[in-house]
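Encode chain A's predicted structure.
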Amino acid sequence: MRREIAEIPEAAARLLEGSAKELAETGLHLKRAAPRFVTTVARGSSDHAASFLKYAIELTAGLPVASIGPSISSIYGAKLKLADSACLAISQSGKSPDIVAMAEGARSGGALTIALTNTAGSPLAVASDHAIDILAGAEKSVAATKTFVNSAVAGLAVLGHWTGDDQLLDALKALPGHFAKAVDCDWMGIADSLTDGNSLFILGRGPSFAIANEAALKFKETCAMHAESYSAAEVMHGPLALVRPGFPVLALAARDASEPSIAEAADGLAERGAAIHITSALAKKAKMLPHVATGHPLTDPLMLIASFYGFVEAFARHRGLNPDSPPNLRKVTETI
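Encoded structure for chain A:
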């Protein structure tokens, strides 16, 4: 896992160069097709990448995006009416039967289907109108890292070509250099607040909420810790009842319009005694973590997960665990 985290900058550069033609062609096809809405199909870390892209598409293309449960096709056999839409399916292996079935169902229902997969020629790639090889390279650790990042980067590149967003496309070109700095950020200062408990909150908002979802999964996978992700707005309602003095919270704030509200929520939790760390200089009472700014609100959140991956791998080993081989898990899970 440590080696694969270190490969993130190289993997992103390889994707942007090696799949450049297909990324551009897919974006231009979307521009011509002018879909009225978008659906996504994915599970696990891939679904978190889909959630990230949901926010990016809604903020940039102005279209609503909805997640479809793969069981709609694989178990229930329902036929969805998806004319004038696009469907984005994400899978590292590209061969989970339920993901493939839903992609096939979306295509037969009239959707323009796009697959993001790390396995060229996989069943999912064959089932889709466009198949983009995310070129992350072999990923042996059970916990996905560089494949999550490259799935998100690939989606942003397609979006940039689709909407003609030159600022986003330019920001993507600079990502490998930013990732190289992000993976070196030291977040082990969080560790002291995690020693006495076995649960924590991870907060985000907008695109960084999708990043919080991914971070919470990685805590469960690698550190045998229960972590729940919440919107920085939602946590101030029911979940607030669980916050006691010393309760650990990680707030993932990117440099976008949500940053002030996340900082405000973080300070509110700090006032209630929470042991809270945040990736923002706007908070007055929460402890600031080192973070990398990219200059673009849609690429900024990806720096947060790159830094988090380095931390969670180190923290798992700090707890005497092997993050490369978590109990009860395997790399490829094929669900029906």
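The chain is about 45% helix and 15% strand.
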